[in-house]
């Protein structure tokens, strides 16, 4: 039986539960703000103001870009903890190239791209050629990048002196108070790209195969080692893009510009339905996951929740969202009882 | 000497949803004797051990220990009773040292603090007693596999076991290691410990056994004193199924040589040479651990060969990776479909086309096309599933096996390597798989089939190659294929 009914199809989609959580959170924030904070004056509800919406989108886009490539990596059964510190390293390096070495932005960007890919490939080589866990190898690289960052900056910011603003500070004004920032466009375009890659290319199907069962993937003719290497190369491209966007937005190479990003990114990817063990996940799930976490922070801010409580609530929501995926997978397994053969 | 019975089994019955059934099984073990159990693959030896060790409980029947009725309902009870089982796989802690391993769960302490010195001293005594040149502080993972096995035996001594069960202890041992182990076993028996010894190697059996029990299809066929029996008699007892129950396959005309291997070595296989014609099925027989799967891995490029040549359609080919094997139209249906065949957490339409991706340069995958292809093979192979979007893990064993076949049929392969194609699936599905294999032959495919299932091997094969210890020890033509002949070559002591 094929799914012909579109509603039925949607209800079977992998992203249903996380999407419902997103809707729930959005409505909850709106309702609480409307009834409790703004004493039922709809005009004052800040959360749904166009400016706020465009802000949320802008705030999540760097995390989002990183989350997309993390989705690849995690579907393939690996993880990369070094992305946050790599952003610090590459970002400050670019700022250094622009300010101290007086390179123009384009050239600095190309160098950054090459360096990022190179380091990712080194890490990929180690992970794919040995049996070492990606967790621990990337943890090592995390520290290496931290060191590089301080060697470059001595712990101080390096400004880009107003250069290199295109990626982070270009906007398209749709109405007077609703504008779409370049980072948002990049994030959405990359999401579509990754969705297409994962769904409509052999490469994408193989990401799932490698993460689902590495042995079977190898016997199905996939050169698993080189494939993993390729994944890290692609990861490098995404990290480089995210770093450039971040640097361009901040206008300064801050040694903490990527601090803690890896945790944010992994949380978003997992909330979006990718499993740590690999083999499962998709681009739109990650997109929603990123949005969800961004909206939670933003909403709690607007509601005036003490920032210290925000951590607690965000943590609870992550656990809640993930357990929801678990519940829906249980439901799936009770529907799909094994079929007995023979009769 | 009064032969007091230490263990006795009466009327044991045990049924599984799958195949193996024990029916009215009897067995007894005397004090200080070495009792060997022999039988074909799948005769029920492992199940028997598991009933002694508490991993399985019999459905019916009684087990007596020292004449008292006991129930061995879990492994810790068996240990308390002094029954120590040493499985084929190592069950030691590789990162702990010998002394720590010996005393795991039996630590000597003053209540809080471990008395390491005492444990090391006791370990040394036991090692000396067994004439083992191992230091109690050696890390177990760094010992050879023969030494590790003796450490496991030493563990039985610490626990003051009265019965030690050894399941295929010598697989992958060198001759000196085997001799050494047999010495230790003799020594233990002389000190009054009873040994149950399970082996595929009749040579070893004749060296150490006091008595031998032959088991076939869960039935105790005979128990002999080892002096009063010949190898031939044992083999006769092990075989002897009702031939009329065998699957009957239609005859297929055999074509040109399709696939040929010359002197292939590596991965534990030595100088394998054979050829398969189009429309021919060559069976590969041998006991578990004789190098059959290792050979298949070499053929498919999953493991690297040290030397040797492979020819397809009389052209020499280099098959260094599975990818090259696939592009040479080969496929490999592995022994363990869950571990190396399927993507269990993926749907059928993601499982079936995955190997076809290795055949094109096209970068794109078409979900719609994948679904169409999957549906085609689901229909052709009659895979029972509610839809093509079902997850592979929810299929039954037989249907999972067909799913693996579907994956390879989709690549339109010419040379099929099957490793245990019907393991763990029910009789109805077995017949369907056989029908599919025969269809392959009728379509001029060449088939190489590894199987431990004698009836299937005999019924389907045009030719049988027997492996033992990584060597091809015999090639049997159609009229020479019999259970007895196969068994003689795969376990016989001297041929």
Would you write up a description of this structure?
The complex is a heterodimer of chains A (343) and B (495). Chain A is mostly helical. Chain A has one domain: ABC transporter involved in vitamin B12 uptake, BtuC. Chain A has 14 helices and four strands. Chain A has a two-stranded antiparallel sheet with strand order 1-4. In chain A, strands 2-3 form a two-stranded antiparallel sheet. In chain A, strand 2 (171-173) and strand 3 (179-181) form a beta hairpin. In chain B, the strands form four sheets. Chain B has a six-stranded mixed sheet with strand order 6-7-8-3-9-10, with helices on both faces. A six-stranded mixed sheet of chain B has the order 16-17-18-13-19-20, with helices on both faces. Chain B contains 17 helices and 20 strands. The mean pLDDT of chain B is 87. Chain B starts with a strand and ends with a helix. Chain B folds into two domains: 5-242, Rossmann fold (3-Layer(aba) Sandwich); 244-491, Rossmann fold (3-Layer(aba) Sandwich). At the A-B interface, helix 9 and helix 10 of A face helix 10, helix 11 and helix 14 of B.
């Amino acid at each position: 039986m094929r799914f012909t009914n579109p509603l039925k199809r949607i209800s079977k989609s992998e992203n249903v539960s996380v999407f419902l959580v997103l809707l729930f959170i959005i409505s909850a924030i709106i309702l609480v703000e409307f009834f409790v904070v703004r004493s039922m004056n709809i005009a004052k509800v800040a959360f749904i103001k166009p400016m706020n919406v465009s802000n949320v989108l802008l705030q999540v886009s760097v995390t989002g870009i990183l989350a997309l490539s993390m989705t690849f990596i995690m579907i393939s059964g690996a993880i990369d903890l070094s992305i946050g510190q790599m952003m610090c390293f590459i970002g400050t390096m670019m700022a250094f190239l622009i300010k101290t070495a007086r390179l123009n932005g384009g050239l600095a960007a190309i160098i950054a791209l090459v360096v990022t890919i190179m380091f990712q490939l080194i890490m990929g080589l180690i992970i794919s050629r040995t049996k070492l866990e990606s967790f621990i190898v990337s943890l090592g690289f995390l520290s290496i990048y931290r060191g590089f960052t301080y060697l470059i900056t001595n712990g101080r910011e390096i400004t880009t002196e107003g250069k290199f603003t295109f990626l982070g500070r270009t906007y398209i004004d749709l109405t007077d108070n609703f504008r779409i920032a370049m980072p948002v466009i990049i994030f959405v375009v990359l999401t579509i790209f990754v969705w297409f890659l994962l769904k409509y290319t052999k490469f994408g199907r193989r990401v799932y195969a490698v993460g689902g069962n590495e042995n079977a993937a190898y016997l199905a003719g996939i050169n698993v080692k080189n494939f993993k290497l390729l994944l890290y190369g692609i990861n490098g491209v995404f990290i480089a893009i995210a770093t450039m966007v971040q640097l361009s937005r901040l206008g300064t190479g801050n040694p903490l510009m990527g601090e803690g990003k890896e945790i944010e990114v992994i949380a978003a990817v997992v909330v979006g339905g990718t499993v740590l063990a690999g083999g499962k996940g998709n681009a739109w799930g990650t997109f929603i996951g990123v949005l969800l976490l961004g909206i939670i922070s933003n909403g709690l801010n607007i509601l005036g929740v003490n920032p210290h409580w925000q951590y607690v609530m965000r943590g609870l929501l992550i656990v809640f969202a993930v357990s929801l995926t678990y519940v829906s997978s249980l439901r799936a397994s009770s529907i799909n009882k094994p079929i007995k053969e023979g009769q | 000497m009064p032969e007091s019975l230490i263990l006795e089994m009466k009327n044991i019955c045990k049924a599984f949803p799958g195949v193996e059934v024990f029916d009215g099984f009897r067995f007894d073990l005397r004090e200080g004797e070495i009792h060997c159990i022999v039988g074909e693959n799948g005769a029920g030896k492992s199940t028997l051990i598991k009933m002694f060790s508490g991993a399985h409980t019999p459905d019916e029947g009684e087990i007596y220990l020292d004449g008292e009725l006991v129930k061995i309902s879990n492994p810790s009870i068996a240990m308390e009773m002094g029954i120590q089982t040493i499985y084929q796989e190592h069950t030691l802690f590789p990162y702990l040292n010998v002394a720590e391993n010996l005393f795991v769960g039996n630590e000597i302490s003053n209540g809080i603090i471990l008395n390491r010195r005492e444990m090391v001293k006791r370990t040394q005594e036991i090692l000396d007693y067994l004439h083992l040149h191992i230091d109690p502080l050696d890390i177990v993972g760094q010992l050879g596999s023969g030494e590790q096995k003796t450490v496991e035996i030493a563990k039985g001594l610490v626990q003051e076991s009265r019965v030690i069960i050894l399941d295929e202890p010598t697989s992958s041992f060198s001759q000196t290691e085997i001799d050494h182990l047999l010495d230790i076993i003799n020594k233990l028996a002389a000190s009054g410990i009873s040994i149950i010894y399970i082996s595929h190697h009749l040579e070893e059996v004749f060296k150490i056994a006091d008595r031998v029990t032959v088991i076939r299809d869960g039935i105790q066929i005979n128990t002999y004193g080892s002096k009063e029996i010949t190898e031939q008699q044992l083999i006769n007892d092990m075989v002897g199924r009702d031939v009329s129950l065998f699957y009957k396959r239609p005859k297929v005309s055999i074509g040109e040589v399709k696939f040929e291997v010359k002197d292939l070595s590596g991965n534990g296989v030595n100088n394998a040479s054979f050829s398969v014609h189009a429309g021919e099925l060559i069976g590969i027989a041998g006991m578990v651990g004789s190098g059959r799967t290792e050979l298949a891995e070499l053929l498919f490029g999953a493991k690297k060969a040290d030397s040797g040549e492979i020819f397809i359609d009389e052209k020499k080919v280099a098959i260094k990776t599975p990818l090259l094997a696939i592009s040479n139209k080969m496929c490999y249906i592995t022994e363990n479909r869950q571990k190396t065949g399927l993507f269990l957490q993926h749907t059928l339409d993601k499982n079936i086309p995955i190997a076809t991706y290795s055949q094109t340069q096209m970068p794109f995958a078409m979900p719609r096309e994948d679904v169409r292809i999957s549906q085609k093979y689901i229909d052709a192979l009659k895979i029972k599933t509610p839809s093509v979007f079902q997850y592979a893990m929810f299929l039954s064993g037989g249907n999972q096996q067909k799913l693996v076949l579907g994956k390879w049929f989709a690549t339109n392969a010419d040379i099929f390597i099957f490793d245990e194609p019907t393991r763990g699936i029910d009789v109805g599905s077995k017949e369907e798989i056989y029908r599919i294999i025969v269809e392959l032959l009728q379509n001029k495919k060449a088939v190489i089939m590894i199987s431990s299932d004698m009836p299937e091997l005999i019924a389907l094969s045009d030719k049988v190659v027997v492996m033992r210890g990584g060597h091809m020890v015999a090639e049997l033509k159609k009229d020479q294929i019999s259970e007895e002949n196969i068994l003689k070559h795969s376990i016989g002591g001297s041929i």
